[in-house]
Design brief:
Elements (H helix, E strand, L loop, with lengths): L9 E7 L2 E7 L3 H4 L6 E5 L28 E8 L4 E7 L2 H15 L3
Antiparallel strand pairs: 1-2, 1-5, 2-3, 3-4
């Protein structure tokens, strides 16, 4: 269990019931610091992403915690603090920017 709130751009191992996931935190740090609000993360699957997903699955770069993996923009999860197990590190600014672009496109935001 984590004592501090997760930080935007971090990749975590996350446990929910008997399932283990890897997630990229995308919610705003102002909310992540509040214990009464669940963080929002995107699923980072272990399998290689389908290139046809394009902007909906930005690929993590060589310097990112899981290079070659992708954050699936269409697969968001509400994350309980108790499920956050191990911080794997931060993605690069370029990767986070690509994720933000994908989220804006998926949610039709300006």
């Amino acid at each position: 269990m984590v004592d501090e709130g997760p930080v935007r751009g971090q990749v975590w191992e996350y446990i929910a019931g008997s399932h283990q996931f890897r997630v990229l935190i995308v919610s705003n740090d102002e909310y992540n610091d509040r214990p009464d609000i669940e963080a929002l993360g995107l699923l980072v699957p272990r399998r290689t992403p389908d290139p046809a997903m394009g902007d909906l699955a930005p690929i993590m770069a060589a310097g990112d915690p899981l290079p070659g993996s992708a954050a699936l923009v269409a697969h968001s999860m509400r994350l309980l603090r108790s499920g956050l197990r191990r911080n794997l590190g931060f993605v690069s600014n370029a990767t986070l920017s690509a994720v933000e672009d994908g989220l804006r496109d998926f949610l039709v935001l300006p």
